[in-house]
Amino acid sequence: MVDIRIALAQIDTCVGDVDTNSRTILEWSRRAAAEGAQVVAFPEMTITGYPIEDLALRASFQRAARAAVQTIADQLVADGLGDLTVVLGTVGAPQVTRTSPGTRPTNQALVLQGGAVTASYDKHHLPNYGVFDEFRIFAPGAEPCVLEIQGRRVGLVVCEDIWQDGGPVAELAAQEVDLLLVLNGSPFEEGKGHSRTDLAVRRARELRAPVAYVNMVGGQDDLVFDGGSFVVGEDGSVLTSAPQFVEHLLVWDLAADGEPEHRGPIAPPLDPDEEVYQAIVTGVRGYVRKNGFRSVVLGLSGGIDSALVAAICADAIGGDNVYGVSMPSTYSSEHSKDDALDLAKRIGAHYRVQPIAPMVDAFQGELDLQDVAAENLQARVRGMILMGLSNSEGHLVLATGNKSELAVGYSTIYGDAVGGFAPIKDVDKSQVWALSRWRNNVALDAGQIPPIPESSITKPPSAELRPGQVDQDSLPPYDLLDEVLDAYIEHAEGRAELLARGFDEEVVDKVVSLVDRAEWKRRQYPLGPKVTALAFGRDRRLPVTSRWREPHA
Ligand SMILES: Nc1ncnc2c1ncn2[C@@H]1O[C@H](COP(=O)(O)OP(=O)(O)OC[C@H]2O[C@@H]([n+]3cccc(C(=O)O)c3)[C@H](O)[C@@H]2O)[C@@H](O)[C@H]1O
Ligand SMILES: Nc1ncnc2c1ncn2[C@@H]1O[C@H](COP(=O)(O)OP(=O)(O)OP(=O)(O)O)[C@@H](O)[C@H]1O
Ligand SMILES: NC(=O)CC[C@H](N)C(=O)O
């Protein structure tokens, strides 16, 4: 028996773009063959993109995916790749079962060999927690799948199947496989790479065989897929791994029976700040490109949030595609305007100044708004300007709110909350500073000019909606606020537990009340990349109309 060369194709697909995804599969199959691979494996739902949500239920979509399978199989043979085993993911046929009246298809892995489908596997475990809703759209599979490739037995499963004990992996353990191949659509969250490898190690030990894990890469709405494909050996060590956030072909040889396992290159792990930063860059790039935009526009206030968003965008799509607008009011400080211009120069962004006072005055001449209403008017005039520029020049408008602000509703709805995408909505204010410092340090280490002006990092945060206003007039200091938010939101602790931790009662009551009252505002906030274990949106679903309040003991 000889080695079998396996290529894990960590590619970026686009939901619904069956034709382009099919071409990408063919292109990477050719690459794999050129590397001498006998098997190439693609991520979960490669033909359709992932996650497809209710597109799965459309008969026309199911037909298009089915037709693509045969087109790919035929083209592989036409290209002289009939001997290559291609393993990919797609949407399977609708199932008529007791719980499924025939509209729910399966989440399927297919094996193409010699111009035909020679095996198929339907995902057993359908994740239905966090961001996932797969029970709604898929019917579960029931049969395990073992491929015979050059006399070796390769078990095939899909993503969630390895996250659950029992099921197909347990069945395969009784069937003596030589390798487990796992096709994945595993969204990024900070530190998740370790959970994936730990899990794969457990499965490798159960099966007494290596596990090859191929994950997708790229942005899809609020999800970021980081790739990071890998192979772990029977002994639990990582044998080879791919870098995160880039397309990559990871080539590895399954050793002949009884021979020691082969090792390949290991991608160096990313620093935790770098991992989150790159995830957001990937999310922004994916959203911009896949939705047909070439450029973005945002208000540059001289503050840290808009500066970090602009720096991320310059890294994602190039500074020349970033349009910054300074929109000073009568309350804007000189340093805000200077810092905004400085930032734009550092990242090579387009920059213009559009004072808002004449427009605010025109409104006030008619309405004479007072207090918060007058403050919010300024943010709304800015929102109107950005949407106007988007309509006339075609840029995607970015909202710059961070997770701490979203949590407590500290933004003006239809004002600074306008936009199509919100890059840092899952990054709390403490991490906004950390990511900014990390990005500047990377530039300094490389002998480059740091993108973010130092004063934007060090100045006290201010909305500048009235003279001398700072965020801390209305909110606890951000380090304290972020701790309380983490306990109340991420860890779902109640009022009593927050007080038991030693937080001040007044702070707890204020924060809890602000968070509870802002659900409606969060529901209307633009999409943005999930980078934490619990992002607002699909991870945390609460009623908007709710009279539940944390009990006072
Ligand atoms: N449950 C509910 N369902 C639907 N709508 C609801 C609602 N509750 C209130 N509303 C509506 O919301 C309105 C109040 O919300 P909104 O107009 O946003 O205004 P509001 O939340 O009262 O004020 C905005 C706050 O954000 C601060 N801010 C603004 C801009 C930027 C920044 C920053 O630092 O980044 C901070 C500002 O200083 C102020 O404290 C109400 O007038 C009502 O129309
Ligand atoms: N003078 C301004 N010129 C341009 N845009 C502004 C201006 N003021 C506010 N904005 C926009 O509104 C967003 C909310 O800004 P604001 O200054 O009120 O709060 P912030 O949370 O401190 O944000 P930042 O740190 O970016 O200043 C900003 O990020 C920016 O996009
Ligand atoms: N696509 C899936 O089945 C993903 C679910 C899995 N728990 C993950 O996040 O990796």
Concise summary:
This protein is of the alpha/beta class and 553 residues long.
What key phrases describe this protein's structure?
single chain; 553 residues; alpha/beta; Rossmann fold; 2 domains; six-stranded mixed beta sheet; 18 strands; 38% helix; binds nicotinic acid adenine dinucleotide; binds adenosine-5'-triphosphate; binds glutamine; NAD; C-N_Hydrolase_sf; NAD+ synthase (glutamine-hydrolyzing) activity
Topology, please?
Layout: E1 4-10, H1 18-34, E2 39-41, H2 59-78, E3 85-91, E4 107-113, E5 116-122, H3 134-137, E6 146-149, E7 152-158, H4 168-173, E8 179-184, H5 192-207, E9 211-215, E10 217-220, E11 223-226, E12 230-232, E13 238-241, E14 248-254, H6 272-290, E15 296-299, H7 304-317, E16 322-326, H8 334-347, E17 350-353, H9 357-367, H10 371-393, E18 396-397, H11 403-408, H12 429-445, H13 454-458, H14 478-490, H15 495-500, H16 505-517, H17 519-523
Parallel strand pairs: 1-2, 2-3, 7-8, 8-9, 15-16, 15-18, 16-17
Antiparallel strand pairs: 1-14, 3-4, 4-5, 6-7, 9-12, 10-11, 12-13
Helix pairs in contact: 1-2, 6-7, 6-12, 7-8, 7-12, 9-10, 14-16
Bound molecules: nicotinic acid adenine dinucleotide, adenosine-5'-triphosphate and glutamine.
